[in-house]
Design goal:
The chain is built from two helices and no strands. It is mainly α.
């Protein structure tokens, strides 16, 4: 019996570059807690809903 495979969201272009920059900044300064701006947070929540992942 096969297990269905979910498609993993993949970042491209400007979104990928911004993600990498924030990840590197987070490594350098782990106490900085601001991760998303308001627009990015809405996009993140929408992506999680579409993928069926819990928030």
């Amino acid at each position: 019996m096969a297990t269905p495979v979910k498609i993993i969201p993949t970042l491209h272009g400007e979104a990928a570059r911004a993600f990498i920059e924030r990840a590197e900044e987070r490594e350098r300064n782990p106490r900085n807690i601001v991760i998303f701006n308001e627009k990015e947070e809405r996009a993140y929540i929408e992506m999680m809903k579409r993928s069926g992942m819990p928030l």
